[in-house]
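Dear Dr. H.,

I hope your travels went smoothly. While you were away I took the liberty of generating a structure for the chain from your last submission, since the lab meeting agenda had it listed for discussion. I wanted you to have the full record in hand beforehand rather than looking at slides cold. The sequence, exactly as received, is reproduced here:
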Amino acid sequence: MYADDRVLVGVLNRKKDFEIARRQHWYRIPERQLPRGLNAEYIAFFLSGKVFHGRGGAIAYFARVTGLELARRADLLPGEDKRSADIYFKLQFRNLVEKDPPIANVPARPISFIRTTWDRFISAETIADLYCAGDFYVDRVYHALRN
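The corresponding predicted structure, in token form, is as follows:
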């Protein structure tokens, strides 16, 4: 794990999707949501508070990305007719790791996808910390040489 490793935060708002992530180690992302591609070494998951009581409303899990492919929704979720022809990224990853403490969504704001770096992710206490623009995060080389 390096400070500059890229982390993509996605949303899990269905228990079925959480079980797929936990047991089968993959997550789907609509291709149209990430037109610039995925480009992340880690995936983290924001659990929707409406669905996940207790651990919901926070980024509670993450995993190392191991693979990526394109697939139709119908192939990923057979039997779900809604948007079955849409193309998705199927992101594969290692076992989920619990983020302790989880990253809180305070104050509550809607979450879709967040791109951040490992150092921001690992030190974040709230969602706002993932966007931190402090000097250390902006010019890591300078601070590394200075220390």
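Two observations you may find useful: The radius of gyration is 16 Å. Residues 15 and 51 are 7 Å apart (CA to CA).

With kind regards,
E. W.
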